[in-house]
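#struct-queue
[09:14] JT: dropping the first one here, sequence first, then the structure tokens:
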Amino acid sequence: MGGIGKTTLAQKVYEHPSITSYFDMRAWVSVSQEFNQEQTLRCLIGCVTAASRDELHKQNQDQLAEFLRKNLKEQRYLIVMDDIWSTTAWDSVQRCFPDDNNGSRILLTSRLKEVAEYASSGNSPLNMPFLDADESWNLYCKVFGKTEFLLVFEQIGRDIVKRCKGLPLAITIVASLLSKIEEEEEKWKNVAKNVMGDSSDACSRILYLSYNQLPHHLKACFLYFGIFEEDYEISVKELVRLWAAEGFLSTEKHVNLEKVAMECLQDLVDRSLVIVSKHSYNGEMKRIRIHDLLRDLCLREARLENLLNVNGVKKPCRWISHTSIYFYDEVMFEDEYFHKSHSFHLTHLSYSWNEDVYRLLSHLKLVRVLEIRNIYWDRVIDLNVLANLVHLRYLALSTNRFSKIKLFEHWNMQSLTVSGYDVTLDSSEAYRIWKMPLLRNFCIGKILSLKDPPVVYRNLENISWLDSKLCTKDLFTMIPNLKTLGVYCGNDDDIPDCFYNFVHLEQLEKLSIKMWINSGLVMCSIPWATSLPNLKKLSLLMSYLQWSELRAISMLPNLEVLKLINACKGSEWETYDGGFHRLKRLVIKKADFQCWNAVGDHFPMLECLEISECYCLKEIPSGFADITTLALIQLSKCSDSLLASAKWIQEEQNNNYGNDALLVRSENIWESGFASTSAKWIQDEQLNNYGKSILARFENISLRVNI
């Protein structure tokens, strides 16, 4: 039964601390009815390796399967295949999962009992039960947010819950709906009346009732979820930009449309119509998804309203979404099918940018949103072919080839993104960006040339990746409201001025810096604290800094997130008092340091520590046991001694501060020399013969040993 809690239960298991620490690797893939083997393999590989998208794109289906198998070999892994619908889907991937008799597990969820029994290794599948009366009422109260009601409202509520027949999704949605309605007897009785009828369609009635209660603008926002693939995790940042471009939202002057969109999304979440699948470090929504039954509702209602066509254009409509790779086989290019479309999404086009696509684009006269992914471009992408699309507000393209972008002029453009391998902006066309006065988001692989704007552009909030030599005072003073900036550093002589000029971006909150060469720049000489007083998030990629140079960065007064990805060199990092006093999240990836000297006072507000592919680091500083704000330590591809130190910190926090909320998650832990079938014996021998050692602090922690 859809909505009975299969995925919810699987997620609880998948994220439980005892599971994350037990398995070397974990991977989650949503299969869905429209099974795509290649896409499933890519998703699984992405969970268990650091392989790049470009590297995977070069491999065919058989190569992907073998690549996955090799990476899982001799690892203790947990694979979750959620929402699997056919035995064929299971047969096509099961050979990728080696059985090394080491405790690896595969967990499936399915609506079909025969699929579960077919894939089972002998144990009986768990049949999810409906909730009983008490469980149903408890869930209702939990979602509603209180347990005490006036007698008349409790009676109506219990009557409605009874009609949900123990289905958690129905109970959750109806409780969310009633929590939005004033406690007036007549209004509650109307809800009860609308869910009357045959119990078999009670859930459907509740879903429709919740949808019908939405304000008009929220109905459009909700139905728009139908453009996304089943079980697709949707980027919140992407979604709010799409809603803004579609024109669903109305706002007063000087109010950011994306802020209004976030309020609308929160409303849908509060009504339990949308599920938050991933939060950012500060608790904000990062990724969301929608339940299959609710997506089915979106598709039905959108088709009834003649709003949406999915995978096949049958008649003129407002939104077109094509997720199949067989675009040319399933779509005709006649004018009448496209001339009313405001939104066109083509997400798996494995063909070249040819005459058919040109002809298609010529028909999209009213289009506001255009998204074309995974297309084989020519070496030069001339976007002038889109010049006749005068209503275009949102453009997202991606390619897997080296490409040079030629811009076009669009007065209504709000977001323009071209992603892919080595995509650059044609120098002769760069000035055209200033012909788009409403542009808020501009993201291209490399922007190597950009003339200063003729007037102040107050709408531009996000630009990347900008060559460092373009980061001038003249440019930054003309885009004063920039909040997010990505900088590409490829020339030694231009880098210093780039940093000093950041002082002119008073609204800048997020900064990412890529350095493709060993710049030799002494960053500690840069006045970070005064240059970027409002910066909240800093990401350094391939910057090759000395660890000591982070001392100046630590003085940023409002820095909350620091990501160091292949960013620092040297064997030792020593932190100091007075820095990182607001840092909440620290990410260190691909660093070769062996020793980290720090005390808790150096990171007084740290909540999340993530360390990945730091094979030489033996332990997290013991002073982290004194950071009472610490809530998560996440390790991936690190030594087992590092995991042991994290466990020790967890135990110390629990013992000394009563903090049992600190989670330690680990994946793909690299076994050092003392971790073997005789690891415990070696540990005891070290303690007996050599006294205090790194293992002495962890004597109460059982080491995980793969046999």
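[09:21] JT: and here's the second one, same format:
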Amino acid sequence: MKALVICVLLAQQTSGVIYRLNASEYARLPELFFLDNYHNCLLAPGDTYCYVDARLVTNETNQLFTVIQEYSAYNKTHFDHTIVHRGVCVTQTCRDYLDNATGLAHAVEACLNATLYKSHGLQTKVSEDSMYCSKFDEPAGYDMVDYAVVLLILAVVLLNMACSLIDYVGCTGNKSIGSRLLLCFSIKRNWDRLRKTAADGPDSRLARLKCFNGFKTITTVLVIMAHSPMNIAMSTSNPEFLENIYHNPIATYFFNGTLIVQIFFLISGFLLAYNILLMEEKRPISWDMLPKGALTRWLRLAPVNAVVLAFVATWQRHLGSGPLWKSLVHKEAAQCRRDWFYNLLYVNNYVDNSDCMPHTWYLGADMQLSVFGLVVFCLVTSPRVRKMAVAAAFVVGIITPAVHVVVQNLSPILLVSPEVARTIFVTDPTFNNLYKRGHTNLVNYAVGLASAMLVYHLQQQKFDITKYKKYVPLYYGLVPFAVFLISSGSFLYIDGIEVPLAARAVYACALRLVYGLTIAAVMNGAIFKFENLYCGVLEWRGWEPLGRLSYAAFLVHVSIIRTVTGAYAVLTYSSVNQIAMRFLGVLCLSYMIAAPLWMLVEAPFCELVKLCLYPKKKEHKPELTIQCEGKNDKICIKL
């Protein structure tokens, strides 16, 4: 056994990869991030500040450079230290190199070379593409698109204010279509809708789905919590904190938490199937409901997404400045202007290397899977054939991730390495080919469809769950088991372990499937009120208004992280406390911004969709015949 351990250690030493450095060795590395004073730099006309990504090179044998290369080679838990990130006050720090340089990039490169060669015996390569420069007298750069967006936002705000005033003075007493259209934009009524909680009616099966508000809100909060530490990967004075935290067992829940997004697909599939099944009780489902259903889903997602997208592409870049402002905020604005139609058509999850709101890949996948669900339930009316179609989708959803892993040699889960987090995932092959595609997330959408069919059938059969109370202890074990599944991916981060391709393929299939079935079991138990603990937590009234705000909060939270990080003029010192404070700040800001977005945009347009596409039919009440006292005449009263 000792001989085996010695062989493994020798193999690691000769493999050209360094997994750990002690504190003294790590201190020898060039600083990964460094910022000159930003605000003291831009004080006079002509002053220039540049943020650059400089690649380290050497023209001679350098033992330190070899260490840097071998340490950076293990990119699962290490930054790429062969690229250093510098905020340089060109007109002060590099003044001596401006006159002899052929360009700004050449001057910055020569300036960095002089410093790094003196301290570490290294040089750099700087290109124009890796530089983001700001000048003191730089124009704000307002254009017609900026003005058009601000006019559009102003028009929406004024429309809400005008309709609210009309509602307040009582000018919409009649129930004409025009009055109802105006009332969709009443702030008072939308505020009441936000605060309203669903009534618990004995015959209302939709009221049994209150637990979904808890699932949706908790999942959104966890997504924001997982994204909030991204600033550490973008700008920090102690990058070793992030590299070392991978060895903390508790941190594995952050790095493997990408799995929780599957809950959204479960909920989406369940609600689509369940609502169609309820609708089928009143009228037959036909093919013509497919385009109407797809349009409804698009109109549900598009208004708020369009407003946030328009703001990110225009006015967000005017909100501030900082060393990383152009690399984080301006870059996203430029790419949103280029790729905005992919986002609004909800095919952005099949567009790679786009920095335009990359977290909204989920919306594209959800839209595509919703269309698939509509195809199954609108075109297939036979219950037996529907079950076969859902089962086929289930099987395809299980196999598809394994095919991608094997063919493209991918990781079975999205490994949130420091460099992947620094680029917000957009350049990672696993993110682009396995994580964000619609077809690779099919399995849990199919689980959601199947769960809805099961719940509907059991409700039709008057299912009595009290007969199974003896299994409550097993039910309580489902949530800890789901937490264990999230942490199970930590073995992929273990130093020196390269998981075989076959094992990765099996894990990619099994993980999403088992996690989805576990959450579906918790969900179904809460719907039937199997016990009081999980059900009580998930049906808490406070989740309902927060659940309504969750979509808008999800849309804006990454933009908040970009804005705050881009405006930081100094490097942040990373710690657990700092991560916690950043998370709470991003969470609060996300929901504070989501509230007016919901009342002014999301709620009004949702009501418009209901009014225009699903108008309530007038009820035809029978005429009441009243026999008048003392007369033979009959008076017909129409109610």
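[09:30] RK: nice, looked through the second one.
[09:31] RK: Residues 215 and 538 are 7 Å apart (CA to CA).
[09:31] JT: good to know. The mean pLDDT is 88.
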